[in-house]
Amino acid sequence: MSNDDIFGSEYVNNTGDTSSAQKKSEVKSLLKEPVKEEDMEKYGTSKPRRVLIKATITNG
Amino acid sequence: MVKVKTTKVSRISQGDIVKDFEHIEYVSEKSGNIEVSKIVFPLAIVLTQDCDLAQDYMYRWSKTSTKNEDKWLMSVIMAPIYNVEHVYTGEHLSDIGMSMTPINRRRTPGDNLRKNETPRYHYLEFPASTAIPPSAIDFKHYFSANVAYLKKHKSKLFACQISDLYREDISQRFASYLSRIGLP
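^ Those are the sequences you sent over. The predicted structure of the assembly is below.
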């Protein structure tokens, strides 16, 4: 029987790690570098909003 | 929890999450009076297939000349990402005058949403470093964005990118939701 790996290694090696971060390490890194308050407010509390722009052409 | 990339690249990719994205509802002009209505989504995700985006980028922006514009896209498919706490209460669109059906977080509907067993929504938990709270993509609210506009503003708007596998999971569920058949 051949010892050759039937799976090409090129794709596997190029893929990189796909596992998500562990919660424990996430907490550690967060304690070292807390999220800025402005970022928490921006992403955590905002909702979609409608903006209406009205203009008049004066030199049309 | 999903895995994300925070490295900015100029190309638009599937799974890119952008912040404060402006979706034009309509533009009208009458007797010299112009009205533009837009919805600003705090977060939105790119759902267009990544191979299409890659080809569009290569044909549209690369310096090497191409025979034609065959691979150019007309638009990019996007979907809003809502704070799941707002989705539970049904108030995530209250600022634009829309009331949504609440989802009881402590009962089966809430469990199903978090387990991604509700076809309409895709639940996401982000790493703490990305500063995005647990959220839900609403596939029903998908919209399109101009490719050149998104490319031009991506560096300013970029929040993070959902990594491979996780984004493909989202893409699969979106395609499945879009192609659903309502049986009598």
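Residues 166-178 of chain B form the longest helix (13 residues). Residues 4-178 of chain B form a domain with the SH3 type barrels. fold (CATH 2.30.30.110).

Shout if you want it in another format.
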